[in-house]
Structure formats: structure tokens, C-alpha cells
Specification:
The chain is an all-alpha fold. It has helices spanning 7-28, 31-38, 42-48, 52-76, 81-98, 100-110, 113-118, 120-139, 149-156, 159-167, 173-176, 179-193. InterPro entries: Homeodomain-like_sf (IPR009057), HTH-type_Tx_Regulator (IPR050624), HTH_TetR (IPR001647).
């Protein structure tokens, strides 16, 4: 008879993986330490995930799914570059308001070079998003034609995430993640891209 999966244990594993990644980075979070924090055996963890990479990729997909869906939806609408960046920043800030642990996890991975090397999928998706943003900016003439895809990627995946990383350190971070600051961060991005 096959062993049953305990959904509570799986949630504990996911939470432990998120916490360990935030605290120690991608490389510092081992399967053994994740299992220990979750209160499960490493064997239990390996029955559900072939590797730490698979576990973290599943978590990344879960947290980025909504952001990606909103991004794709916004591209189907007739918006300019500035409005598109406002939407990206707004959705990122909403994630932080809804799930601060998830936001910290995504921030930790965005700035973790060792994870970037492990996740070719993440790099490809970032460049694809950056290419679409660049194309939109060129179409609407809101972007300097000399701006490269790599520059767009650096701006879009640094300024909003770094700003959020600084703001969530404050006790009143939810108040600060408002429309005024969404627009300010979008302006910083636009200015950096021109």
C-alpha cells in the first residue's frame, strides 16, 4: 500500500523551505535543514521532491504565477510603458501586502546569484518579459531606442524589488505600499530606461 501524503506536512516543508531560503539564501538551505525545520525526515521530503531545486522551483512558480498572469493580461490591453510598469509594481506590492513571507522569498531569490545560475528557466522568463517591455516601449516611443533588453531586465528586476526589500523592513510597510509609491517607483524605472 502506498504511503499517504499529509498535506499539513507538505505545507510545513514549503514554509520551511521559504524561511530557510530567506534566512540563508538558496545555497544555504539544504534538504536536511529544510526537513529538520519542517519536522519531517529527509526521506519524506525526497518522496515528494527529487531535489531542493524541484521544491524551490515549485514555490517560485506558485508565487510568480499570479504576477505572470497579471503581466500577460496587461499586455493584452492597450497600455503604454509607464502604465505597464505601474501595474507590475502595483502587483508586486499587492503580493507583499497579501503574503509578506512570499514576497521576502521572491526578493531573496531575485537577488541570489547562486539561484540565478541554477534556474535557467527564471533567466529565460526574465529576458522574455524584458523583451516584451522593450518592444512596448519602442512602439509607444517611451523608451530610448538604444536601451537594450539586458538594461530593461536590470531596471525592472532591480528597482521595484530593491525598493520593496527596503520598505518591508519597516513596521508600517503596508501603509507605505500605496499608489503614490507605486507611481514613484514606476517613474524611477522609466527615468532609468530613458
Amino acid at each position: 500500500m502506498a504511503r499517504k501524503t499529509d498535506p499539513n506536512k507538505i505545507e510545513k516543508v514549503k514554509k520551511a523551505a521559504i524561511e530557510m531560503t530567506i534566512e540563508y539564501g538558496y545555497r544555504g538551505a539544504s534538504i536536511a535543514s529544510i526537513a529538520k525545520r519542517a519536522g519531517v525526515s529527509t526521506g519524506y521530503l525526497y518522496r515528494h521532491y527529487r531535489s531542493k531545486e524541484e521544491l524551490v522551483e515549485e514555490l517560485v512558480d506558485t508565487y510568480l504565477k499570479e504576477l505572470k498572469e497579471n503581466f500577460i493580461k496587461n499586455f493584452s490591453q492597450d497600455k503604454g510603458l509607464y502604465e505597464m510598469i505601474i501595474d507590475i509594481v502595483f502587483n508586486l506590492f499587492q503580493l507583499a501586502k497579501k503574503d509578506i513571507l512570499g514576497a521576502k522569498f521572491i526578493i531573496a531569490l531575485v537577488f541570489d546569484i547562486s539561484f540565478d545560475k541554477e534556474s535557467k528557466k527564471k533567466s529565460c522568463e526574465q529576458l522574455e518579459i524584458a523583451q516584451r517591455i522593450r518592444n512596448l516601449g519602442l512602439k509607444t516611443k517611451e523608451l530610448n531606442p538604444k536601451t537594450t533588453v539586458e538594461e530593461v531586465s536590470v531596471v525592472i528586476f532591480t528597482i521595484p524589488f530593491m525598493y520593496l526589500a527596503e520598505i518591508i523592513k519597516k513596521d508600517n510597510y503596508e501603509e507605505l505600499l500605496n499608489e503614490k509609491f507605486v507611481r514613484r517607483v514606476a517613474e524611477m524605472c522609466i527615468n532609468a530606461l530613458q
